[in-house]
Every structure is written in structure tokens, then in C-alpha cells.
Amino acid sequence: MPAKAYCALYSYKIFNSDRFDLLGNSLAILTGIASLERARSLVAWVEAECEAMPDRGEFAVGLAPGLFPYILPNHAD
Prior knowledge:
two-stranded antiparallel ribbon; 2 helices
């Protein structure tokens, strides 16, 4: 089992991101790049995160954000 249920936004040489890209991971599932086990784990992780985010005050609507954790003004990105 991978350390994270999802594929990171980018990874290049020594640079990488821990952010989650909903579109990219959805495409990995739809095209079969992600195994069935990983796809199930990914969907379960997204559902759990979306349920927890309103409790943390991170969003107020019932739609999954395209990129999270969000990039905020104080982040280096």
C-alpha cells in the first residue's frame, strides 16, 4: 500500500508536492492507470476528506475541491 492514497500534484527531480489534484487522480482511475485497489482507496480517501473539511472550516459546500490542501497566500507555492 502506498504511503498516500493519491498521486501527488507533481514530482520532478528533488522537487515534489503533497497537494492532491482531483482531476489528475480521477483521470488515473478512469484510464486504468490506478489499480482497482488503489482506485477504491483513493475514492474512500476523497470522501473522508470532503466530510472532514467543513468541520475544519476549509469549505462550506458539498463539492470536492479540485486541489487540496489549498494554496494560501502565506505558502511558498
